[in-house]
Write a structure and sequence with these properties.
The complex is a heterodimer of chains A (about 110) and B (about 120). Chain A is mostly beta strands and about 110 residues long. Helices cover about 0% and strands about 55% of the residues of chain A. The chains are: A mainly beta (about 110), B mainly beta (about 120).
Chain lengths: ~110, ~120
């Protein structure tokens, strides 16, 4: 069985300050983990993915995430928020098998204060 | 390169009516997904195809929902009859290869369904 929990439904930060979006997962298999971003009235876009290679994954637009197996976490971070980062962010877990299930988290809405 | 194409973008129907959504994936992508996204929630997988084969349809409500992917290219998702609770955005995505969920998914813009 697989599940994913995004610990914050809404995060608000000031422009130029760090961003932390939290994601915990559970999986019976070795998981692949993803972060997707959804801007208003735009399609979902991949930010980054972890597939059993390096545990620190760098993505687009300065985002990165660290896979911590002992904590079953895959938190998304960015050193300095930009106004254009305001969007909905989804953490996704998928098992690396032919019978994999793909589970999206409930999302975290990121707001950026000027 | 064209992205995932979905039509229609918006659909308003009365309950008990049938409705169909169409998706054309990125050329060469073997895997196609249909998701349902309710307002304020994450997408929920309805069905995943690898080429013509539906490899995961465990979350598809088969009493009213059906899907097909003839020739392993474009796909149609149908609801018959529609219920009020089916109002949502229906997303289509595709990915290259068939590695069981480890590939990046490319999403279409979605079809927003309103059932009155």
């Amino acid at each position: 069985a697989q599940s994913v929990t995004q610990l914050d439904s809404h995060v608000s930060v000031s422009e130029g300050t760090p961003v932390l979006l939290r994601c915990n997962y559970s999986s019976s298999y070795s998981p692949s983990l993803f972060w997707y971003v959804q801007h208003p009235n735009k399609g979902l876009q991949l930010l980054l993915k972890y597939t059993s290679a390096a545990t620190l994954v760098k993505g687009i637009n300065g985002f990165e995430a660290e896979f911590k197996k002992s904590e079953t976490s895959f938190h998304l971070t960015k050193p300095s928020a930009h106004m254009s980062d305001a969007a909905e962010y989804f953490c996704v877990v998928s098992a690396y098998s032919s019978a994999s299930k793909i589970i999206f988290g409930s999302g975290t809405r990121l707001s950026i204060r000027p | 390169e064209a992205g995932v194409v979905q039509s229609p973008r918006y659909k308003i129907i009365e309950k008990k009516q049938p409705v169909a959504f169409w998706c054309n994936p990125i050329s060469g992508h073997n895997t196609l997904y249909w998701y349902l996204q309710n307002l304020g929630q994450g997408p929920e997988l309805l069905i995943r195809y690898e080429n013509e084969e539906a490899v995961d349809d465990s979350q598809l409500p088969k009493d009213r929902f059906s899907a097909e992917r003839l020739k392993g290219v474009d796909s149609t998702l149908k609801i018959q009859p529609a219920e009020l609770g089916d109002s949502a955005v229906y997303l289509c995505a595709s990915s290259p290869g068939t590695s069981g969920g480890a590939n990046e998914q490319f999403f279409g813009p979605g079809t927003r369904l309103t059932v009155l």
